[in-house]
Amino acid sequence: MNKENMQKELFELYEKLERDKELYQEFIADESKFLQDRGFLQGITKERNNILKGVLEDQDKKIP
Q1: How many domains does the chain have?
Q2: What range does the domain containing 31 cover?
Q3: pLDDT tens across 6-26, in order?
């Protein structure tokens, strides 16, 4: 999931939360579990890992 798709999907999800009170209550009860159940935290974690990997590779090139 690329950054643009993730942003779009999160935006759509938050729009649904505004309209669906039951879904909103589920979200309020445990935000992390709610997002994880829908696959968002995995995508965020993977994106962060890719960023960290890029930074480490860049630093490795700078070290003689």
Answers
A1: 1
A2: 3-62
A3: 778 888 888 898 899 999 899
